[in-house]
Amino acid sequence: IAGITQAPTSQILAAGRRMTLRCTQDMRHNAMYWYRQDLGLGLRLIHYSNTAGTTGKGEVPDGYSVSRANTDDFPLTLASAVPSQTSVYFCASSDQGGSTDTQYFGPGTRLTVL
Amino acid sequence: GQNIDQPTEMTATEGAIVQINCTYQTSGFNGLFWYQQHAGEAPTFLSYNVLDGLEEKGRFSSFLSRSKGYSYLLLKELQMKDSASYLCAVSDSNYQLIWGAGTKLIIKP
After folding, report:
1. Which chain A residues have a beta carbon less than 8 Å from that of B41?
2. What letter would DSSP give residue B82?
3. I need a surface site. Which of A81, A89, A98, A112 has the fewest CB within 10 A?
Protein backbone atom coordinates (compact mmCIF):
# COMPACT_ATOMS: atom_id res chain seq x y z
CA ILE A 1 0.00 0.00 0.00
CA ALA A 2 1.48 3.34 -1.05
CA GLY A 3 2.04 5.89 1.65
CA ILE A 4 4.32 7.09 4.41
CA THR A 5 5.64 4.99 7.26
CA GLN A 6 7.21 6.24 10.46
CA ALA A 7 9.17 4.41 13.14
CA PRO A 8 9.01 4.00 16.02
CA THR A 9 5.30 4.40 16.80
CA SER A 10 6.18 5.66 20.25
CA GLN A 11 9.27 6.07 22.36
CA ILE A 12 10.22 7.08 25.90
CA LEU A 13 13.65 8.63 26.00
CA ALA A 14 15.94 9.87 28.76
CA ALA A 15 17.02 13.49 28.50
CA GLY A 16 20.43 13.85 26.89
CA ARG A 17 20.06 10.79 24.70
CA ARG A 18 20.31 10.84 20.92
CA MET A 19 17.30 9.67 18.93
CA THR A 20 16.50 9.27 15.23
CA LEU A 21 12.92 9.18 14.00
CA ARG A 22 12.57 7.38 10.70
CA CYS A 23 10.31 8.30 7.80
CA THR A 24 9.94 6.52 4.47
CA GLN A 25 7.58 7.23 1.58
CA ASP A 26 6.96 5.17 -1.53
CA MET A 27 5.02 7.73 -3.57
CA ARG A 28 8.16 9.11 -5.24
CA HIS A 29 7.32 12.53 -3.86
CA ASN A 30 10.03 15.15 -4.19
CA ALA A 31 9.24 17.09 -1.03
CA MET A 32 9.19 15.86 2.56
CA TYR A 33 8.50 17.59 5.87
CA TRP A 34 8.80 17.08 9.60
CA TYR A 35 6.23 18.64 11.94
CA ARG A 36 5.63 18.51 15.64
CA GLN A 37 2.14 18.69 17.12
CA ASP A 38 1.59 19.88 20.68
CA LEU A 39 -1.70 20.24 22.53
CA GLY A 40 -3.28 23.61 21.93
CA LEU A 41 -0.86 24.51 19.15
CA GLY A 42 -0.99 24.04 15.43
CA LEU A 43 1.39 21.78 13.59
CA ARG A 44 4.80 23.45 13.48
CA LEU A 45 7.32 22.81 10.73
CA ILE A 46 10.72 21.65 11.96
CA HIS A 47 12.63 20.95 8.74
CA TYR A 48 11.76 20.29 5.13
CA SER A 49 13.35 19.01 1.96
CA ASN A 50 12.17 20.05 -1.50
CA THR A 51 14.26 17.41 -3.25
CA ALA A 52 16.81 14.74 -2.46
CA GLY A 53 20.10 16.28 -1.38
CA THR A 54 18.61 19.54 -0.09
CA THR A 55 17.10 20.51 3.25
CA GLY A 56 15.75 23.67 4.83
CA LYS A 57 14.82 25.00 8.26
CA GLY A 58 11.24 25.49 9.30
CA GLU A 59 9.71 27.41 12.16
CA VAL A 60 11.23 25.39 15.05
CA PRO A 61 14.51 23.78 13.87
CA ASP A 62 16.65 24.17 17.01
CA GLY A 63 17.73 20.85 18.53
CA TYR A 64 16.84 18.88 15.39
CA SER A 65 18.71 17.86 12.26
CA VAL A 66 17.68 16.09 9.07
CA SER A 67 19.23 14.52 6.01
CA ARG A 68 17.84 13.56 2.60
CA ALA A 69 20.22 11.11 1.00
CA ASN A 70 17.56 9.72 -1.36
CA THR A 71 13.97 10.39 -2.44
CA ASP A 72 12.31 7.91 -0.10
CA ASP A 73 13.88 8.54 3.33
CA PHE A 74 13.90 11.61 5.56
CA PRO A 75 15.18 10.85 9.09
CA LEU A 76 14.91 13.37 11.92
CA THR A 77 17.60 13.34 14.61
CA LEU A 78 17.49 14.79 18.10
CA ALA A 79 21.14 15.11 19.06
CA SER A 80 20.57 15.50 22.78
CA ALA A 81 16.90 15.22 23.74
CA VAL A 82 15.30 17.64 26.20
CA PRO A 83 11.86 17.41 27.90
CA SER A 84 10.49 20.26 25.74
CA GLN A 85 10.88 17.97 22.75
CA THR A 86 8.13 15.74 24.12
CA SER A 87 5.58 15.83 21.31
CA VAL A 88 3.93 13.92 18.49
CA TYR A 89 6.06 14.06 15.38
CA PHE A 90 4.54 13.78 11.91
CA CYS A 91 6.39 13.25 8.67
CA ALA A 92 4.66 14.38 5.49
CA SER A 93 5.37 14.43 1.78
CA SER A 94 4.10 16.21 -1.32
CA ASP A 95 4.72 15.85 -5.02
CA GLN A 96 6.60 19.14 -5.30
CA GLY A 97 7.99 21.50 -2.68
CA GLY A 98 7.53 25.21 -2.91
CA SER A 99 4.03 24.66 -4.19
CA THR A 100 0.48 24.12 -3.01
CA ASP A 101 0.57 20.39 -3.65
CA THR A 102 -1.34 18.44 -1.03
CA GLN A 103 0.74 17.12 1.83
CA TYR A 104 0.23 13.51 2.91
CA PHE A 105 1.04 12.54 6.46
CA GLY A 106 2.52 9.50 8.13
CA PRO A 107 0.93 7.97 11.24
CA GLY A 108 3.17 9.88 13.65
CA THR A 109 5.68 9.10 16.39
CA ARG A 110 4.77 9.88 19.99
CA LEU A 111 7.95 10.86 21.79
CA THR A 112 8.29 11.39 25.54
CA VAL A 113 11.53 12.82 26.92
CA LEU A 114 12.00 12.39 30.67
CA GLY B 1 3.34 37.77 12.84
CA GLN B 2 1.37 34.99 11.26
CA ASN B 3 -1.78 33.82 12.91
CA ILE B 4 -4.55 31.33 12.25
CA ASP B 5 -7.60 31.35 14.55
CA GLN B 6 -10.20 28.63 14.92
CA PRO B 7 -12.63 27.79 17.72
CA THR B 8 -11.16 25.24 20.09
CA GLU B 9 -14.20 22.99 20.31
CA MET B 10 -17.69 22.69 18.85
CA THR B 11 -20.58 20.33 19.53
CA ALA B 12 -23.26 19.33 17.05
CA THR B 13 -26.01 16.75 16.68
CA GLU B 14 -25.98 13.78 14.33
CA GLY B 15 -27.78 14.64 11.10
CA ALA B 16 -27.37 18.40 11.58
CA ILE B 17 -25.15 20.98 9.85
CA VAL B 18 -22.10 22.63 11.41
CA GLN B 19 -19.88 25.48 10.23
CA ILE B 20 -16.28 25.71 11.43
CA ASN B 21 -14.70 29.12 10.96
CA CYS B 22 -11.08 30.05 10.37
CA THR B 23 -9.56 33.52 10.22
CA TYR B 24 -6.01 34.17 9.19
CA GLN B 25 -3.30 36.79 9.02
CA THR B 26 -0.27 35.63 7.09
CA SER B 27 2.65 37.00 5.12
CA GLY B 28 1.35 36.22 1.68
CA PHE B 29 -1.37 33.83 0.63
CA ASN B 30 -1.15 30.89 -1.74
CA GLY B 31 -4.28 29.08 -0.69
CA LEU B 32 -6.04 27.61 2.31
CA PHE B 33 -6.33 23.96 3.25
CA TRP B 34 -8.69 22.03 5.52
CA TYR B 35 -7.57 18.74 7.02
CA GLN B 36 -9.41 16.23 9.20
CA GLN B 37 -7.62 14.52 12.06
CA HIS B 38 -9.18 11.73 14.09
CA ALA B 39 -7.81 11.28 17.60
CA GLY B 40 -4.45 9.53 17.56
CA GLU B 41 -4.25 9.54 13.77
CA ALA B 42 -2.60 11.53 10.99
CA PRO B 43 -4.21 14.58 9.39
CA THR B 44 -5.91 13.81 6.07
CA PHE B 45 -6.67 16.29 3.30
CA LEU B 46 -10.23 17.58 2.89
CA SER B 47 -10.13 20.67 0.70
CA TYR B 48 -8.09 23.46 -0.86
CA ASN B 49 -9.32 26.96 -1.76
CA VAL B 50 -7.30 29.63 -3.51
CA LEU B 51 -10.09 31.69 -5.11
CA ASP B 52 -13.02 33.34 -3.36
CA GLY B 53 -16.20 31.36 -3.15
CA LEU B 54 -17.64 28.03 -2.18
CA GLU B 55 -16.20 24.65 -3.14
CA GLU B 56 -18.55 21.72 -2.60
CA LYS B 57 -17.39 18.14 -2.22
CA GLY B 58 -20.12 15.76 -1.12
CA ARG B 59 -21.22 16.48 2.44
CA PHE B 60 -18.32 18.88 2.94
CA SER B 61 -18.01 22.40 1.53
CA SER B 62 -15.33 25.03 2.03
CA PHE B 63 -15.64 28.77 1.58
CA LEU B 64 -12.98 31.44 1.19
CA SER B 65 -12.98 35.23 1.34
CA ARG B 66 -9.46 36.54 0.74
CA SER B 67 -10.41 40.17 1.40
CA LYS B 68 -11.69 39.23 4.86
CA GLY B 69 -8.98 36.67 5.65
CA TYR B 70 -11.75 34.19 6.37
CA SER B 71 -12.73 30.65 5.54
CA TYR B 72 -15.25 28.16 6.79
CA LEU B 73 -15.79 24.44 6.49
CA LEU B 74 -19.40 23.34 6.29
CA LEU B 75 -20.32 19.79 7.20
CA LYS B 76 -23.82 18.58 6.33
CA GLU B 77 -25.77 15.51 7.43
CA LEU B 78 -23.37 14.94 10.28
CA GLN B 79 -22.39 11.38 11.09
CA MET B 80 -20.76 10.04 14.23
CA LYS B 81 -17.61 9.32 12.23
CA ASP B 82 -17.25 13.08 11.63
CA SER B 83 -16.16 13.45 15.26
CA ALA B 84 -12.59 14.65 14.77
CA SER B 85 -10.42 17.73 14.82
CA TYR B 86 -10.53 19.98 11.77
CA LEU B 87 -7.32 21.84 10.95
CA CYS B 88 -7.13 25.04 8.92
CA ALA B 89 -3.79 25.79 7.23
CA VAL B 90 -2.65 28.66 5.00
CA SER B 91 0.13 28.43 2.42
CA ASP B 92 2.20 31.58 2.93
CA SER B 93 4.44 33.53 0.56
CA ASN B 94 7.13 30.81 0.86
CA TYR B 95 4.58 28.04 0.24
CA GLN B 96 5.01 26.88 3.82
CA LEU B 97 1.86 25.83 5.63
CA ILE B 98 0.87 27.83 8.70
CA TRP B 99 -1.50 25.77 10.82
CA GLY B 100 -4.29 26.64 13.17
CA ALA B 101 -4.55 24.72 16.45
CA GLY B 102 -7.59 22.86 15.16
CA THR B 103 -11.26 22.66 16.09
CA LYS B 104 -12.39 19.56 17.95
CA LEU B 105 -15.86 18.63 16.72
CA ILE B 106 -17.99 16.48 19.00
CA ILE B 107 -21.03 14.82 17.46
CA LYS B 108 -23.86 13.79 19.78
CA PRO B 109 -26.56 11.27 18.87
Report:
1. 107-108
2. G
3. A112
The whole-chain average pLDDT of chain A stands at 96
What pLDDT score does B45 carry? 97
d(CA B109, CA B12): 9
pLDDT band at A98 (very low <50, low <70, confident <90, very high): confident
Q: Which helix (H) or strand (E) holds B88?
A: strand B84-91
Q: Using one digit for the tens of pLDDT, what is the confidence trace for B56-94?
A: 999 999 999 999 999 999 999 999 999 999 999 999 998
For the four alpha carbons of A34, B100, B80 and A88, in that order, the dihedral sign comes to: positive
User: Which residues, 6 or more positions from B78, have their beta carbon under 8 angstroms from its beta carbon?
Assistant: B12, B13, B14, B15, B16, B17, B18, B107
Give the CB-side neighbour count of residue A24, counting CA atoms within 13 A: 7
Given a contact cutoff of 8 angstroms between Cβ atoms, the answer to whether A34 and A23 are in contact is yes
Amino acid identity of B23?
T
Choose among B4, B31, B45: nearest Cβ to A42: B4
Residues in chain B closer than 8 A to A45 (CB atoms): 96-97
Is A108 within 8 Å of B42 when comparing Cβ atoms?
Answer: yes
Q: What is the CA radius of gyration of chain A?
A: 13
